[in-house]
Design goal:
Order of helices and strands: HEHEE
Helix content: 25-40%
Shape: globular
Structural class: alpha+beta
Mean pLDDT: 93
Strand order of the largest sheet: 1-3-2
Number of strands: 3
């Protein structure tokens, strides 16, 4: 997974074009740093799934 693809996925989540995106464990180390650099990274939520995958969603206005 490239940085550019990750940025595209994050923008699709943010815009509502896609409601969720599944990141397999093999992609995680490439995906995570780009997510953390995103200006709204705290609005993205990841839920762990069986086998090490994570399903990300976007929740605008989320505060922890």
């Amino acid at each position: 997974m490239t940085d550019e693809l990750t940025r595209q996925v994050l923008e699709q989540l943010k815009s509502g074009e896609v409601s969720e995106y599944r990141v397999e464990k093999e992609q995680f180390l490439a995906f995570q740093p780009v997510l953390h650099r995103h200006e709204e990274f705290k609005n993205f939520r990841g839920g762990a799934k069986h086998g090490g995958a994570i399903v990300y969603t976007y929740k605008p206005g989320w505060t922890a």
